[in-house]
Amino acid sequence: MTLKKTLTIAGSDTSGGAGIQADLKTFQEHGVYGMTALTTVVTMDPNNHWHHNVHPLSIDTLEAQLETVLSVGIDAMKTGMLGTVEIIELAAKKIDQFGLDKVVIDPVMVCKGEDEVLNPETTDAMREHLLQRATVVTPNLFEAGQLAQTGPIKTIDGMKEAAKKIHDLGAKNVIIKGGKQLEHDKALDLFYDGSEFTLLEEEKVETSYNHGAGCTFAAAITSNLANGQDVKEAVQNAKKFVTAAIKHGFKLNEYVGPVMHGAYNRFEK
Questions:
Q1: What is the DSSP track for 93-110?
Q2: ∠ CA 22-123-144 to the nearest 5 degrees?
Q3: Which part of the chain is the Pyridoxamine kinase/Phosphomethylpyrimidine kinase domain (predicted)?
Q4: Architecture of 5-268 per CATH?
Q5: Contact indicator for 50, 243 with CB cutoff of 8 Å
């Protein structure tokens, strides 16, 4: 049996709910073979209200990881927490060098539970180097506002405006995650392929156990692309997958509750 191969360039979430841990669990659930290139290690301080601490790896270590994985060959890839301009530039360089054409950019700007943007200058670098190489980019409302330079987004019309601006920057497809934060009676995301808007709606899940949802969604899209689905189908199926994961999220400790990455195959499929 030959499995499709996927790559995630992302940070490690030591608590296991997001980052490369979420990506690998999601890849496994989709029957693809996942490989990693680690950018940072994120730890949480149990003695300081689960405050996140970010421990970057050297750029040389990241490049060595990428050379390892890309020498094998991959069918699709995603990015997560990249963290520095130098890392973003390296990711763009490798996408071009190896002719990668199924690229999911998850423009992570903050750690879940933290409000401070990790490195503000990376938004400009994403805009300049990554969006034009993205098969699909998956910002949440905050990230979409940053990339599109529209400011806060609170409506569907605002999402459409941002999606157009992000597409104009070079992304082939844009999916803006409104989720339950949007003022709407459904958990709503907006997909834009440059010519048509599609609203993806699911019932809102009233839970705070949603740690890792964004990573899981992007990893599901990546898996679906590797398995041969077109972009719109990959996004629609990923929406169902992550909705089930959120629905079956659980409490890890007093600070966080992750999604259940295997929920769709276990309970919904």
A1: HHHHHTT---EEE----S
A2: 70
A3: 13-259
A4: 3-Layer(aba) Sandwich (3.40)
A5: no
